[in-house]
Amino acid sequence: MKKKIVKNIGVFGFIRKLEPPIKKAARAVLKHEGKKTYRINFILVSNAEIKELNTTYRNTPQVTDVIAFLIDTKLMIGDIYIADERLIKQAEYFGNTLIEEVMYLSLHGVLHLCGYSDYDEQNKKKMFEVQDKLYKCLFS
């Protein structure tokens, strides 16, 4: 019996027009990282909800824009939470459209699932180099 390859990206809570860009950004990272099997969920939450997740699981009592939880490394199963208010404010601050900002945050979340870290300067530099390169590719 042939093994079924799972390729699934779920998008929950976002307005419908953001679903294709989120999936496009996620697939760009997965292709770049050579991931052939995946099941990833993107979940839109409030600032209060993401702060609670950040406090509970990272012991960091503050609002963040993205938090990612890897459930299975072999099959690349994970959940990525994006804060709705931060998404909007960051889009305005950086002069991005909502689509551009959600794609940037989606790239960031999937890179976390792939093992990238931004918790120290050296790893952050490496992560953002890959993230920025992929982001540029999405719009070229």
Care to describe what's here?
The protein has 140 residues and is α/β, with parallel strands linked by helices. The protein has one domain: Collagenase (Catalytic Domain). It is built from five helices and four strands; from the N terminus they run E-H-E-H-E-E-H-H-H. It has helices at 19-32, 47-58, 84-94, 98-113, 121-138; strands spanning 7-12, 38-45, 66-72, 77-83. It has a four-stranded mixed sheet.
pLDDT < 50 runs, ≥5 residues? none
Cα-atom radius of gyration: 15 Å
Give the full name of the CATH homologous superfamily.
Metalloproteases ("zincins"), catalytic domain
CATH topology: Collagenase (Catalytic Domain)
Identify the CATH class.
Answer: Alpha Beta
User: What is the overall silhouette?
Assistant: globular
Strands ordered across the widest β-sheet:
1-2-4-3
Task: Considering the chains and any ligands shown, give keywords for the structure.
140 residues, 5 helices, Collagenase (Catalytic Domain), four-stranded mixed beta sheet, alpha/beta
